[in-house]
User: What shape does this take?
Amino acid sequence: METPISEIRREYSKGKLTQCTIHDNPFEQFVEWLNDAIIHKEDEPTAMIVATVSAEGFPSTRTVLLKGVENNQFIFFTNYESRKGKQLAGNPYISLSFVWHKLERQVHIEGKAEKCPDKVSDTYFATRPYKSKIGARISPQSQVISSRMEIMRAFVKEVFKLAGRDIKRPDNWGGFAVTPTRFEFWQGRESRLHDRIQYILQKDGNWIQERLAP
Assistant: This one.
């Protein structure tokens, strides 16, 4: 490695975040930033790091795609028998993190996840590409497999089995809706004096807004 990892750094100077300009509602602020990420052609602007906790108290993370912000909830879809699905069944508390490098921005969200109604999962599943539907049906997500060939054979077998038929959502696949209790919006600034503003949900349903030290 030509450059030591410890020497890799850059200055952030593309924006600022003030309590005078930020929205009072964190969902409005998130939608504005997400739209900015899409307009500026961020790679995978809807990608989010999802953190869950095992029954033993060990955290784990993975990246999934946000598929909706509806009724003050963040929605994503997965196999309920996957590692994250099983962990959420035992402990519904979750965090989501978005990182938009071109804009030097991050958003961190904490909250509680619950399964979406079947109708919501069915509606979304119907919009998925044909091959993605097949993949959702045959993949034992997060489980150990002997080789990639094993999963490809299962894929081909399911394609022939369902040829010419409507592909229905499997019972073990569907959505989670995350209800946030905390947001943090992070804007990179010079000299590592970043802007950080958090929103905390109060018992009366209102959000309080606070600036955090960088």
Observations:
- The first strand starts at residue 47 and ends at 53.
- Residues 26-39 form the longest helix (14 residues).
